[in-house]
Amino acid sequence: MEHSRSGASLAALVAGPAPAVVYGITAVRMEDGHLSEVMMGMIAPNLEHWDLRPAPTRLVEVVDLLVEGDTVVTLFPTECGTLQLGSQVTVDVLPGGTETLAAAEDRPGRFLTDLPRF
């Protein structure tokens, strides 16, 4: 996994008193224009490989991890086949009260909906 030159480093996202659990989202599934599921895995503590490879994960499970204080980031594919760090992911609430996910930073081409579909 490589770090974005324009974004914060992954190490800065997980810095703190206790080692944080970091998850990465590599793809999304949309239903009726809304995020329904993500392809997510656990990133190893050394931030260089997967501890748990990405697997389909229900939206409610991601929200639970975020509420519990875990870090979730987007990882975008590059032309050379590596993954580049995107933004940290946060919980957002739609007008009807439904919880969904959003990127903490709005950067063109780096929204959750810009990730590959599965």
Number of strand elements: 6
- Major beta sheet, strand line-up: 3-2-1-4-5-6
Give the topology string: H per helix, E per strand.
Answer: HEEEHEEE
Distance linking N and C termini = 20 Å
Major sheet: 6 strands, mixed
* Number of H- or I-type helical stretches: 2
Gyration radius from CA atoms, angstroms: 13 Å
Can you offer a commentary on this structure?
- This protein is mainly β.
- The protein has one domain (10-114).
- The protein has two helices and six strands.
- It has helices at 10-14, 59-67, and strands spanning 22-31, 34-43, 50-58, 71-77, 83-93, 99-103.
- The chain has a six-stranded mixed β-sheet.
- The mean pLDDT is 86.
Architecture blueprint of SSEs:
Blueprint: H1 10-14, E1 22-31, E2 34-43, E3 50-58, H2 59-67, E4 71-77, E5 83-93, E6 99-103
Parallel strand pairs: 1-4
Antiparallel strand pairs: 1-2, 2-3, 4-5, 5-6
Describe the structure using short key phrases.
6 strands, 2 helices, 12% helix, mainly beta
Short overview:
The protein has 118 residues and is mostly beta strands.
